[in-house]
Specification:
about 650 residues, Herpes Virus-1, about 55% helix, elongated, metal-binding, ARM-type_fold
Length: about 650
């Protein structure tokens, strides 16, 4: 809707611009632009004065009489010390040079049949699609598109007058219309004036009062500043953890070096050359790790520096004036949101594998080394042509001397880390340990401990828990045939019973570390043991029942505690089935006696409630813990033996 400008009260030497909006339709009958009525602004106008004498029109300017011409939009100029007549002449001239559609200076002005002038592009946008004649936007007289005539005089005059605004724009005014900047355009991200809002460029844009937009974006910037500070705090926390991790790693490296020096001191005459070699490897690893840590530390420092710069930039932006703050604030917000602390801490480990590659005959010459140590496996695997021979020899040695586990397992794991480098080799290692644990009854416990240690210390696979996964897959193959094995021939059942007892040992010894560092047992093994007990009790042959008794003596207390924590009554059901077997199954008298003893043991909380009051030799009659404390040994054919 065209806007007009009224002079100030009588006696004033300067003209004060006044913005007003007209109603739904112009005096000439032109309908109001959509959305104008809802955004109407009221002003208190001064009382009307007698209109001044008409200013002669410039040559070539045509238009309807002043009485039929609606108010025009007049862009406010800075106050100038001009006389009344000069101001009115400037107003009339500006009015004649303003298009009543776009409310801006004419661009390619054309005249239509009724004599009114408009921008060519404004007229073309107002035509009906596919229509012939169109009504004049001011007087509604019909005109034909073919009657458009360029108004060269008006175009030259517009070009002459327009440079008058090319000078410096005063603060707070629109550089295009010299109107006060009262609105903020969300799409263009800049302040605009009221005339800009009515233009075609901003017709569909979202506008907000400049004060409201200022408060809104200032609040967003302050919130972004807080978020950036939180990110910087997180980055600094990670940096501190990184420093602590490096310190721990340096201590481990120091301890490792001291340990190696002590070992090689005993063998200095034979191993001087090898000692220097391995120390060089450690130094190289140390340099590489330090280099990697320095790169990571530099990356963290860069993140922290970037966050500091963003925080300072956001703070400076938030302290700016409203117009400066609203100059594309979304760019700063977007950069702040995209600045993330993408960094993950690495677990620094000592990966160098150091062996003592000397012959056993040479080790015998070193004073202080016993024959047991000579026959141990700290001399690496150089004497073995294949991995299978090395692992099998170590497993046999561990079966004969279980006490050597603590002293030799670390070197065994380090040797495997240097040898086992493929999935096939890892699969072969799992199969060798599984066969040893299920074919030799006395090795089931030691095999479970070995599996637990290797699952945490083998570093040959990038996937966490790879050894444990292959082991559980191998056990699952045997587990799926449980029903057929429990009712098979004697040889099949014997192999099945060895697997059941190994799985029980594995459930007790295989530790799984959670995300928070807590140690738990494998739930999948707990479920598997329940189904294995069902298979054994569903086929109540003597050897199956004996295997069930051994399994419950081994894992009964742990299983019942775990089931109680989950609110399950599985142990009650198992004991009920055992009592039914005692009453109805055709098993031997000795086996029934074993089952009754097991029920009695469970009724005394698996021997964990009472203790012998006075010192005397423990017997099944005076010590409920007897069955729990007495270790079980087996002969080569699987028959259980007492400790004596």
């Amino acid at each position: 809707m065209p806007l007009g400008q009224d002079a100030a009260s009588s006696g004033s030497d300067t003209a004060t611009p006044v913005l007003a909006r007209c109603g739904p339709a112009t005096p000439a009958g032109r309908p109001a632009r959509a959305g104008i009525e809802s955004r109407k602004v009221r002003f208190n106008f001064p009382k009307p004065r007698e209109a001044p004498a008409a200013v002669p029109r410039a040559a070539g300017l045509q238009g309807p009489p002043a009485a039929h011409r609606p108010l025009r939009r007049v862009a406010a100029h800075p106050t100038r010390a001009l006389g009344k007549s000069s101001v009115m002449e400037a107003k009339d001239l500006q009015e004649e040079l303003t298009c009543s559609i776009c409310l801006d200076y004419f661009k390619d002005p054309v005249s239509i049949e009724c004599g009114h002038n408009f921008c060519r592009c404004c007229l073309q946008r107002s035509w009906e699609p596919g229509g012939g004649q169109f009504p004049c936007p001011e007087c509604r007289q019909l005109s034909s598109p073919a009657a458009l005539r360029p108004n060269w005089v008006l175009a030259r005059l517009t070009r002459t007058v327009r440079p008058g605004r090319q000078g410096p724009v005063p603060p707070g005014l629109c550089g295009r219309h010299w109107e006060p900047l009262r609105l903020f355009c969300e799409e263009d991200q800049r302040p605009v004036c009221l005339v800009c809002r009515e233009s075609q460029e901003h017709q569909t844009h979202t506008m907000a009062p400049i004060d409201e937009a200022f408060e809104n974006y200032r609040e967003k910037l302050l919130k972004t500043q807080c978020d950036l500070k939180a990110k910087m705090k997180e980055a600094m926390r990670l940096h501190d953890m990184e420093v602590k991790s490096v310190t721990d790693w340096q201590n481990k490296m120091k301890n490792k070096r001291l340990s190696l020096s002590a070992e090689y001191a005993k063998l200095h005459r034979f191993l001087a050359e090898e000692e220097q070699l391995f120390l060089q490897r450690l130094s190289k690893e140390e340099e590489e790790t330090k280099k990697k840590w320095n790169e990571n530390s530099l990356r963290l420092n860069q993140i922290i520096t970037s966050l500091k710069e963003l925080i300072l930039e956001v703070w400076e932006k938030s302290q700016c004036s409203s117009l400066e703050l609203l100059q594309n604030p979304k760019d700063l917000l977007t950069r702040s949101e995209n600045q993330d602390v993408n960094y993950s801490l690495e677990d620094l480990k000592v990966t160098s594998v150091c062996h003592i590659p000397m012959m056993k005959e040479m080790l015998k010459q070193v004073q202080g080394y016993s024959s047991n140590y000579t026959e141990s496996y700290e001399d690496g695997c150089e004497d073995y042509p294949t991995l299978a021979e090395y692992v099998q020899d170590f497993l046999n040695h561990l079966t004969e001397q279980p006490g050597s586990f603590e002293t030799e397992i670390e070197q065994f794991a380090e040797t495997l880390n240097g040898w086992v480098t493929t999935d096939d080799a890892l699969q072969e290692l799992v199969e060798l340990i599984y066969q040893q644990a299920t074919s030799i009854p006395n090795f089931s416990y030691m095999g479970a401990r070995l599996c637990n240690y290797l699952s945490h210390h083998l570093t040959i696979s990038p996937q966490s828990g790879r050894f444990r996964q292959l082991l559980l897959q191998r056990c699952r193959t045997e587990y799926e045939a449980k029903d057929q094995a429990a009712k098979g021939d004697e040889v099949t059942r014997k192999r099945f019973h060895a697997f059941v007892l190994f799985l029980g040992e594995l459930y007790l010894n295989l530790e799984i570390k959670g995300t928070n560092g807590q140690v738990t047992r494998a739930d999948i093994l707990q479920v598997g043991l329940r189904e294995l007990l069902n298979a054994l009790l569903s086929n109540p042959m003597d050897d199956n029942l004996i295997c069930a008794v051994k399994l419950l003596k081994l894992t009964g207390s742990v299983l019942e505690d775990a089931w109680k924590e989950k609110g399950k009554t599985d142990m009650v059901e198992i004991i009920q089935r055992i009592e039914n077997v005692v009453l109805g199954a055709n098993c031997s008298r000795d086996v029934k006696q074993m089952l009754l003893k097991l029920v009695e043991l469970r009724s005394s909380n698996w021997g964990r409630v009472h203790v012998t009051s006075t010192y005397r030799e423990a017997t099944p009659e005076n010590d409920p813990n007897y069955f729990m404390n007495e270790p079980t040994f087996y002969t080569s054919d699987g028959v259980s033996l007492h400790c004596s």
